[in-house]
Amino acid sequence: MPFATCTAPAMTVVRPDEETLSRQCLPYFVGVSGVSTPATGISMNLVIIPPHGAAEPHFHKGFETAVYMMTGRVDVRYGHDLEELLVLEQGDFLFIPADMPHQPVNHDDEPALAIVARNDAHEQESVELFHRH
After folding, report:
1. Where are the domains of the chain?
2. Contact 98, 60 (CB under 8 A)
3. pTM of the predicted protein model
4. What pLDDT is attached to residue 35?
């Protein structure tokens, strides 16, 4: 199991101890989710975008995403055919609507770290890989 939990009355502490690979092909550390806690409507994990790495283009079917960029700088391609581009820098928050195709790309020599939250306790189940038209 890539995490340890400590349950107090009505609360759960999650201590991730190893990274796992997401469907988007990014390393992440399991945080709060339906897998690690009794959560039913939220997930929050630490995602790493390796130096010169990128996620597979994808979207989250039916679920919104919020991102907080802890360190690094990434380009985020998004839109119907990933034709749009924005830059996410340390300290930025980003909202991604449900079903929006996107792909974060790290062009730097250092890893980028982000906290990613979704209104889906089993967030990996809603990940759909996206193929450009």
Report:
1. 20-129
2. yes
3. 0.86
4. 87
